[in-house]
């Protein structure tokens, strides 16, 4: 534990801005672990410093990407059993847990004697920070051949918001650009049904819809304020009109969901169309 001289998440970003002694690394890219040494240190920090528990005394439940390889799960099991000596480990697909949590709640308030796993069928749209997937689940089992990947994720929304602020001429400090864009995304962004109406609303009543963000430049200590306008609805709009952000992919998310259901076995399509679960923790 004496070697845990590193930080995670917001704490890592604040240390990076205030000191030049640290470098920023991410062990996961596009939903896949590509740096297992850093991932092992990440788990050490979570277990010992944040959870403050002895891993040898607890069973562990870990989530995994729906497109993860068997080798990736083997590496996860090897680290958890050989490094942390956990007595038991269960690795589940994120989409199945998302859908099961929703059904468990519905069953608990409707019929406590029924089995939620018998009806656990639906399409899960899993939008994370680095990867997005559309996963069909039938009776608790993932139809692997019908999983669709969406190339845009939460980090792309952050990048797009940052790009829009720069193009509009907002004076955002470069070292704080991504951090501010991420907070704008989390606090102010929303989806709209008609993008043209949203533009008209913002232009007609700017005092009502335009938000203001005030902060202090970390290096000079000078306060500054930026306006947050069209970015509020244009950021999430890349899921429905991806061409406004990238010319490499033009298939909107609803169309990809339809393709996912249509590629599933024909006897499961009606049930899949009935239930759509959105897991957007990383967005």
UniProtKB/TrEMBL annotation:
Family indicated by similarity: Belongs to the actin family.
Molecular function as annotated in GO: actin binding; ATP binding
Role description: Actins are highly conserved proteins that are involved in various types of cell motility and are ubiquitously expressed in all eukaryotic cells.
Pfam families attached to this UniProt entry: Actin (PF00022)
Nucleotide-binding listed as a keyword: yes
InterPro entries: Actin, ATPase_NBD
Coiled coil: none
Keywords: Actin-binding, ATP-binding, Nucleotide-binding
Protein name: Actin-related protein 3
Protein's organism: Setaria italica
